[in-house]
Amino acid sequence: MRIMNQNIDSGKPFDWGKTSSDYAKYRDIYPKEFYQKIVDRKLCIDGQSVLDVGTGTGVLPRNMYQYGAKWTGTDISENQIKQARILSKSMDIDYYALAAEDIKFPNHSFDVITACQCFLYFNHETVMPEFYRMLKPEGRILILYMAWLPLEDKIAEASEKLILKYNPNWSGAGEKMRQINIPACYREKFELVFHEEFTLNVPFTRESWNGRMKACRGIGASLSEKEILLWEKEHKKLLEDITPDEFHILHYGAVAELKKQQHEL
């Protein structure tokens, strides 16, 4: 499904379904420390029911399945959900192809609602009351994010410059470590109870880093097939010139936890 938002990539359309096969193969990259941050908050664990909004290929439910929560994943893209079901075939995870704004589970269905890498895409005035309604008393929204740091990592910087060569309107460039921005409307129904930002060194090979970059919004989700092939050829040559076969890319992770306030809509 094509998405257009004037605040993202100057309104250039993108479709995560175009890159689902690469997404499934190359974007399951969060290190153990990332998931441990969630467990340390006593969230997404045994006895809890969790809704993962914008689940993509089910990266978060699949990797946290071992901790015992009952997971439901939703995503706007049918292709992403198809990949999620394939990758989760041995797990009891429910998946639905739904935009965040169209999710209508019953009242008090979930202990936790998670949003990993996707919070910026939501229509918050629409989803915030629905999140509140679907959460149990004392329920939590957990917002998660991870990004490379191009101003501190030379390989990330060079790869990012190549994305901008082919897609100059891509607005994902130039990330710095920062707290997740929570829109003001959430203050009506939720309280920010925790946030943390931290660095992570994430291992890659030339192949996996090329795949990770290709599966980003600025390339695989928005460019034509011809443009993607040209970019990939140039990117692979770049990596041969500047990287060893294996390397690490400096990233940062960010977590924000919102607690449901005790009043009803």
Structure description:
By secondary structure, the protein is an alpha/beta fold. Helices cover 31% and strands 25% of the residues. The chain has a seven-stranded mixed β-sheet. The longest helix has 18 residues, at 225-242.
Distance between the termini: 31 Å
Shape: globular
Largest sheet: 7 strands, mixed
Q: What is the structural class?
A: alpha/beta
**How much β-strand is present in the residues?**
25-35%
> SSE order in H/E notation?
HHEHEHEEHEHEHHE
Low-confidence stretches: none
Number of helices: 8
Widest sheet: strand ordering: 3-2-1-4-5-7-6
What is the CA-atom radius of gyration, in angstroms?
A: 18 Å
**Helix coverage percent of residues?**
25-40%
Could you report the average pLDDT, rounded to the nearest whole number? 96
DSSP summary, beta strand count: 7
Characteristic key phrases:
25% strand, 8 helices, 265 residues, seven-stranded mixed beta sheet
Describe the structure concisely for a colleague.
This protein is an alpha/beta fold and 265 residues long. Helices cover 31% and strands 25% of the residues.
Itemize the secondary structure elements and their pairings.
Elements: H1 20-26, H2 32-40, E1 49-53, H3 59-64, E2 70-75, H4 78-87, E3 94-97, E4 110-116, H5 124-134, E5 135-148, H6 154-166, E6 190-205, H7 206-214, H8 225-242, E7 246-260
Parallel strand pairs: 1-2, 1-4, 2-3, 4-5
Antiparallel strand pairs: 5-7, 6-7
